[in-house]
Design a protein that fits this description.
- By secondary structure, the chain is an alpha/beta fold.
- It has a single domain, classed as Alpha-Beta Complex (Spore Coat Polysaccharide Biosynthesis Protein SpsA, Chain A).
- The protein is built from eight helices and nine strands.
- It has a seven-stranded mixed β-sheet, with helices on both faces. It has a two-stranded antiparallel sheet with strand order 2-3.
- The N terminus and C terminus are likely disordered.
Length: about 220
């Protein structure tokens, strides 16, 4: 186990918000879910989960995203190579994490069913095990963000050629800790139909926030 993990070294948050929203047809980071934008929600819950600092990686919509989260405790980092793929944003965000942070949780801004409790659980498992990776898995099949990376893996993230940490996860899966979530939480908003589907679901539930599992209510 990493000594600093056992002692409670700091864990940063890296929120990837640099996409071009090509399939959505408009800036999806400003779309509202439960009364707040996707960008604001992701940054807020990262802070509520205790991640510090919270780095927000921006790209095409840099100015709009920075305005949206400007009053929250976060550090904007612009990725000039955002069009080259999400791996460049992960590398930019992780590369900006301060040296006194032992690990970082990489999150996507457009996953509205991820909660602060989920992020806190990843950090808790890291503290308990000292594993270099703590990976969210959905429905026993898909591995996806949020994912916690120990600092020992930051260099590999910087050298990724594709994907959002998938190369690194595959390489170190034998040493990873997996945290299981319901398959329904693996939702991201890429297209207009995705957004409308989530809005209808929340309206039908009478929710003002993304719903949580009854057995794991925050």
């Amino acid at each position: 186990m990493s000594a600093r993990a056992a002692e409670g070294g700091g864990v940063a948050g890296v929120v990837l918000a640099a996409g071009s929203s090509t399939r959505m047809g408009r800036n999806k980071l400003l779309l509202e879910i439960g009364g707040e934008s996707l960008a604001r929600r992701a940054v807020r819950l990262a802070g509520e989960a205790g991640l510090d600092p919270v780095v927000v990686v921006t790209g095409r919509f840099r100015e709009a995203v920075e305005r949206e989260v400007g009053d929250l405790a976060c550090v904007p980092v612009f990725n000039p190579d955002h069009a080259a793929g999400i791996q460049t944003s992960a590398a930019a965000g992780v590369g900006s994490v301060a040296g006194d942070c032992e690990a970082a949780v990489v999150m996507l801004a457009d996953m509205p069913f991820v909660t602060a409790r989920m992020v806190r659980t990843l950090v808790a498992r890291y503290r308990e095990t000292g594993a270099p990776l703590v990976v969210s898995t959905y429905g026993g099949e898909a591995n996806a963000p949020p994912i916690l990376y120990d600092r020992a893996l930051f260099g590999e993230i910087a050298r990724m050629k594709a994907g959002c940490g998938r190369e690194v996860v595959r390489r170190h899966m034998e040493r990873a800790v997996l945290v299981e979530w319901p398959a329904g939480r693996l939702r991201d908003l890429d297209r207009p139909d995705d957004y409308e589907s989530v809005r209808r679901e929340l309206a039908a539930a009478g929710a003002t926030e993304s719903p949580v599992d009854p057995a794991n209510r925050e």
